[in-house]
Recover the amino acids of this structure.
């Protein structure tokens, strides 16, 4: 599902951006004659097809007052968001400038509030993507950050002020240039449904390689990784499995820090909002702080989309409860041969259980501990006790996951009526 990126680092016009975004460079401009103090409004709004799906987009125009936000521009964007509510099409915003027509005073501030409200109303209804191509700070940065995913070029900035960080850690994707950023938006849209009532798209075909680890059980060359440069604790990706789009969370054996926990939780909530199944690979001994565990547990427990967890390494204590246990309300848990389920660190559990039985040299004691872990803390033993649902090797894992997703395709789960969770 990938596409080729261009390496041209030139600044693109608004028309060039829209032509690169839309299939066949075909789109309909919306409110093209809207006036802003004697000139056309500082942004172009449009609708067209991306990967065959209708998508709204707006681009700030540098040749119109440098794209500065005005009452006319804000009203134009509000109109676009209103259309998105009515039709259920995703919204992609291209940001070049964060300045505002300050001479318009509080009237500008008021319409910006209306614009932020419209964006928030759309959250969870249609996917929203922000593509940041210039210095985007202050109020405009808040609007850009309000999207589900942020794509920015390496030289662009997304921040509350010019003196702060450039916002790279908040961006799901960092592109080397403008053309690559547009291409990444097109690629991302290929994994997303139009709205929360539509099914996620399917790939045209599924190429299968040798299934030797968690990565390889999915369709070849289907992975789109988010926040790729900013965490080695967990990998968040969209992929396809038998052509069906899924979201995957893969922990890598390290303790999960609070920032990574928040990214995992936000990703799970997005997938849940748009009914994208979540498949989690569990290999971690826990969390660096209680807040991270609470954040992830809440996200998983609230999500009603199909959820499958695969224990690929150590599922220990809070990690098991938050990512695979009953507290996370996971639909099915599969243990890979050789993986471990334990209430505390495996060696600590072995020491506690064998405290009166350990004997011999240190090497002999280590051997006894290893044998205890393999026999008593194995996924095979956990399956016998009913703590997990299935066992598999990697060669059969793909078929098992596909089978469970097929079973769960008719999943219906109601939640208690409430405004929102408080944790």
């Amino acid at each position: 599902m990938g596409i080729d990126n261009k390496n041209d680092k030139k600044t693109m016009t608004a028309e060039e951006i829209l032509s690169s975004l839309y299939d066949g460079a075909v789109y309909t401009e919306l409110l093209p004659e809207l006036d802003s103090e004697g000139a056309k409004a500082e942004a172009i709004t449009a609708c067209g097809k991306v990967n065959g799906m209708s998508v709204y987009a707006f681009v700030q125009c540098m040749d119109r007052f440098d794209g500065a936000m005005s009452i006319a521009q804000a009203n134009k964007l509000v109109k676009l968001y209103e259309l998105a509510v009515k039709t259920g099409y995703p919204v992609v915003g291209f940001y070049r400038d964060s300045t505002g027509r300050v001479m318009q005073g509080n009237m500008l501030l008021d319409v910006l509030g209306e614009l932020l409200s419209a964006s928030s109303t759309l959250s969870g209804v249609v996917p929203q993507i922000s593509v940041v191509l210039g210095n985007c700070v202050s109020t405009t940065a808040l609007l850009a950050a309000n999207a589900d995913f942020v794509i920015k070029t390496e030289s662009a900035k997304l921040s509350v002020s010019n003196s702060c960080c450039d916002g790279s850690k908040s961006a799901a994707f960092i592109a080397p240039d403008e053309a690559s950023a547009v291409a990444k938006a097109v690629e991302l849209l290929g994994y997303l449904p139009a709205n929360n009532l539509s099914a996620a798209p399917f790939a045209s075909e599924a190429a299968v390689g040798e299934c030797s680890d968690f990565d390889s059980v999915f369709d070849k060359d289907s992975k789109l990784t988010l926040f790729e440069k900013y965490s080695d604790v967990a990998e968040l990706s969209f992929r396809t499995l038998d052509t069906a789009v899924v979201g995957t969370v893969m922990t890598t054996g390290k303790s999960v820090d609070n920032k990574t926990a928040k990214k995992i939780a936000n990703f799970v909530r997005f997938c849940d909002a748009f009914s994208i199944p979540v498949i989690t690979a569990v290999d971690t001994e826990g969390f660096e702080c209680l807040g991270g565990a609470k954040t992830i547990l809440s996200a998983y427990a609230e999500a009603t989309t199909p959820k499958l967890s695969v224990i690929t390494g150590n599922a220990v204590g809070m990690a098991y409860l938050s990512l695979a246990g009953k507290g996370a309300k996971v639909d099915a848990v599969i243990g890979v041969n050789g993986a471990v389920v334990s209430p505390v660190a495996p060696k600590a559990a072995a020491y506690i259980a064998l405290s009166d039985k350990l004997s011999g040299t240190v090497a002999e004691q280590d051997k006894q501990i290893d044998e205890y872990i393999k026999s008593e803390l194995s996924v095979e033993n956990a399956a016998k006790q009913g703590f997990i649902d299935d066992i598999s090797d990697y060669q059969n894992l793909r078929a098992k996951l596909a089978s469970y997703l097929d079973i769960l395709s008719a999943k219906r789960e109601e939640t208690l009526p409430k405004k929102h969770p408080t944790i």
Notes: Residues 105-122 form the longest helix (18 residues). Confidence is low (pLDDT under 50) at residues 1-8. The domain at 14-189 is CATH 3.90.226.10 (2-enoyl-CoA Hydratase; Chain A, domain 1). The CA atoms of residues 15 and 44 lie 8 Å apart.
